[in-house]
């Protein structure tokens, strides 16, 4: 039989929005057999969503610093593409804290010839938890599209 005094050593912690579960924590570190203690969540809370605006600013600064004043050369384009993707990936990993997210960086760099270019990315993901952000850099000689995908790990 539970009385009101039995709940004095426990506290309930809200771990996110209303769809998330409540965690019952035992302040004395002893978990009784009738206490449901679970921390598994099916989606990120509102404060853990993919920070698209912050990542977009990382992409913008990296692309601008790397490609400003450059002229397209096929040999250099391969090197620049790798450097941009490595720098963006490292910055996202170090600066942006995204628990339970994996990120993928995709960079496309080409010569500016006046023709149109279509860029499409497709993947299977959860629209409520996964997201992406992208930015484009152009000058008279080249264009660059950098996309960062964030996939939530269940």
From TrEMBL:
Superkingdom of origin: Eukaryota
GO BP: microtubule-based movement
A Pfam family annotated for this UniProt entry: Tctex-1
GO cellular component, one term: cytoplasm
Gene3D superfamilies: Tctex-1
InterPro entries found in the cross-reference section: Tctex-1-like, Tctex-1-like_sf
GO molecular function, a single term: dynein intermediate chain binding
Record family assignment: Belongs to the dynein light chain Tctex-type family.
Record's protein name: Tctex1 domain-containing protein 2
């Amino acid at each position: 039989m539970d009385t009101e005094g039995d709940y004095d050593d426990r506290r309930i912690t809200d771990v996110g929005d209303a769809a998330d579960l409540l965690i019952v924590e035992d302040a004395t570190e002893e978990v009784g057999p009738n206490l449901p203690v679970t921390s598994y969540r099916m989606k990120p809370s509102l404060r853990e969503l993919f920070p698209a605006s912050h990542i977009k600013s990382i992409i913008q600064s990296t692309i601008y610093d790397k490609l400003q004043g450059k002229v397209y050369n096929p040999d250099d384009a391969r090197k620049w593409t790798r450097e941009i993707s490595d720098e963006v990936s490292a910055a996202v990993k170090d600066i942006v804290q995204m628990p339970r997210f994996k990120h993928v960086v995709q960079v496309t760099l080409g010569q500016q010839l006046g023709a149109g270019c279509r860029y499409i990315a497709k993947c299977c993901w959860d629209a409520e938890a996964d997201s992406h952000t992208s930015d484009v850099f152009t000058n008279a000689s080249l264009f660059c599209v950098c996309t960062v995908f964030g996939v939530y790990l269940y």
